[in-house]
UniProtKB/TrEMBL annotation:
<dbReference type="InterPro" id="IPR001173">
    <property type="entry name" value="Glyco_trans_2-like"/>
</dbReference>
<protein>
    <submittedName>
        <fullName>Glycosyltransferase family 2 protein</fullName>
    </submittedName>
</protein>
<dbReference type="InterPro" id="IPR029044">
    <property type="entry name" value="Nucleotide-diphossugar_trans"/>
</dbReference>
<feature type="domain" description="Glycosyltransferase 2-like">
    <location>
        <begin position="10"/>
        <end position="134"/>
    </location>
</feature>
<dbReference type="Pfam" id="PF00535">
    <property type="entry name" value="Glycos_transf_2"/>
</dbReference>
Length: 543
């Protein structure tokens, strides 16, 4: 990596009532080294001592400049704009008060921007879920390290990266195109800012380095605005920001506008739907807002989306009120999708959502087996096994010859799955599905996790892998039933004791926490304590 000849970056840090964490964020920016000319910290009229913390840091670090706002802006856009106004370096980066920049992030981005004369440089970002410390890559597979994207229209999928914080920007480029964040209480301001950047058609340089660690505290007493999905106003704000972003992108290039709308159907809509509040009033309001939000989409936009987003959009358009099987729809919005019975057909024999809402599920007959939204239910069958029920899906699995099933455990921290033993499927007496009793060796799974370097508490997502006689296969997220959930304490010859906590994820699928030995048990207790006691307000994000 080349060294930068001068201090060329301003890091803008925004903070509101974050006295306990803002110091770590600022320190991570100052620690980038001489490539950072200055850190501009904007205190958005905090009332908790954040301003005093920043002033004390500024007294010790000449490169830190503090801007104190007299009135709270209500969002993240205005303080970021204030930070840009105070910046003096040729390049600017953004950092939120509860996140950190990894060592070398600014250097890597500047080097790439200058080498390729790119107004924008982007690097890898991870969502670090706290207190567990699990890192989830942001938009994996979207970028290739070392590539240079000449213009966004060459890669319409770039609209899926709506973050502003994993990038470096040429300030001259931003000023030339009058690119700023929306002011005031504008949630999902990143959507609009990023759309304005892409619409200006910059060359984009990509680095493989990790350049941003985004801390996610879902169990906080005051979660971020973007994670507060129990407030229907949050969804309204997201829909409005999406509309504005799609308009900006569409005016610049039709391909980008359509890609933005498809992203809304394939990403934004499912993540909210699968975590939908059960309150009928909330659901009715959400349904009305969403149907109105789909009016800007053409049939061509909907047809360009994958089956999950396409079918959900058409269901929303077809019904003025939430359907009776709303929970079934929420389950279908999960990842991977799962379509529970009953399976209805229309007059022409085509697959439809239900008899009450006969929206055609176009493409069902030709969809690859690996993409089918198959449904699996799982319940306890003994101390060391579980029983699954696999539902057929419009005859597709029967035609493929559903043959065997096995459990697959995906480590939530990433990595290869741990596979159970395959077991032959048995057709149910009533037809329309299969059952199997699958071994569940929790002690062996804990050993596998330890061998892979998992220390303390282990977290696994559970999947069922189905293989068919024609060579095809499909993976499903099982839905727990019966008394499968609940903590279990198991004796272990290796660890003395093994704590197992099967649980249901936000999307209704089965997951598992394992705590082998005293070390693991302590980690599980700490995890539960941290989830209960975490309390703060991180800045809003589009995730």
């Amino acid at each position: 990596m080349n060294s930068c000849p001068s201090s060329t970056v301003t890091v803008v840090v925004i903070a509101f009532n974050d006295a306990g964490l803002v110091g770590e964020a600022v320190s991570s920016a100052l620690a980038q080294g001489p490539v950072v000319r200055e850190v501009v910290a904007v205190n958005d009229a905090s009332t908790d001592g954040t301003g005093r913390v920043l002033d004390a840091l500024a007294a010790a670090h000449p490169r830190l400049k503090v801007v104190h706002r007299a009135q709270n802006s209500g969002g993240c856009g205005t303080p970021r704009n204030d930070g840009m106004a105070a910046a003096t370096a040729p390049y600017v980066m953004f950092l939120d008060s509860d996140d950190v920049l990894p060592p070398g992030a600014a250097q890597a981005l500047v080097t790439a921007a200058e080498q390729y004369r790119a107004p924008v440089a982007v690097g890898a970002c991870v969502r670090r879920e706290l207190p567990q410390g699990r890192d989830v890559p942001w938009v994996p597979g979207l970028y290739t390290a070392g590539e240079v994207i000449e213009q966004p229209v060459d890669r319409p999928a770039l609209v899926r990266d709506t973050l502003c914080v994993n990038k470096l920007y040429d300030r001259y480029f931003l000023d030339k195109h009058a690119i700023r964040f929306p002011d005031g209480r504008y949630i999902y301001e990143d959507f609009v800012f990023t759309a304005r950047v892409l619409a200006a058609a910059p060359r984009i340089a990509v680095v493989g380095d990790l350049v941003y660690v985004w801390h996610v505290r879902r169990a906080a007493a005051r979660v971020s605005i973007s994670l507060d999905r129990g407030d229907v106003g949050n969804w309204h704000s997201r829909v409005e920001a999406h509309h504005e972003a799609a308009r900006i992108l569409g005016e610049a290039a039709p391909e980008l506008g359509r890609a933005s709308k498809v992203k809304f159907l394939e990403y934004d809509l499912p993540i909210y739907l699968r975590e939908l509040d059960p309150d009928p009033g909330y659901r009715a309001a959400w349904w009305t807002l969403t149907r109105a939000g789909l009016r800007c989409l053409t049939e061509g936009d909907i047809a360009a989306a994958g089956a999950q987003g396409r079918w959900i959009a058409r269901l929303l358009r077809a019904g003025e009120t939430p359907p009776a099987d709303m929970d079934r729809l929420a389950r279908f919005a999960s990842a991977p999708p799962s379509l529970l019975p009953p399976y209805a057909t229309g007059a022409d024999g085509a697959a439809v959502w239900s008899e009450e809402l006969p929206v055609e599920l176009d493409g069902m007959a030709t969809m690859p087996v690996a993409e089918l939204p198959v449904a699996v239910e799982v319940e306890p069958a003994g101390r060391f096994s579980v029983r699954i029920r696999l539902h057929d899906l419009y005859g597709r699995l029967a035609a493929a010859g559903a043959d065997t099933a096995r459990l697959s455990f995906l480590p939530r921290d990433g990595g290869e799955p741990a596979l159970g033993h395959p077991v032959a499927l048995a057709a149910t007496p009533a037809g329309g599905g299969w059952t199997a009793e699958l071994p569940l060796r929790l002690g062996g799974l804990a050993v596998t996790g330890r061998r892979r370097g998992l220390r303390g508490m282990q977290a696994w997502d559970v999947r069922v892998m189905v293989r068919c006689a024609d060579g095809s296969s499909v993976q499903a997220a099982p839905r727990p039933r019966g008394d499968l959930l609940g903590r279990r304490i198991l004796p272990s010859s290796r660890y003395g004791v093994l704590l197992a906590q099967p649980y249901r994820t936000a999307s209704g699928s089965l997951a598992l926490r394992l705590a082998p030995g005293a070390e693991g048990a302590l980690a599980l207790v700490r995890n539960r304590f941290g989830r209960a006691r975490a309390g703060r307000r991180p800045g809003p994000r589009p995730g």
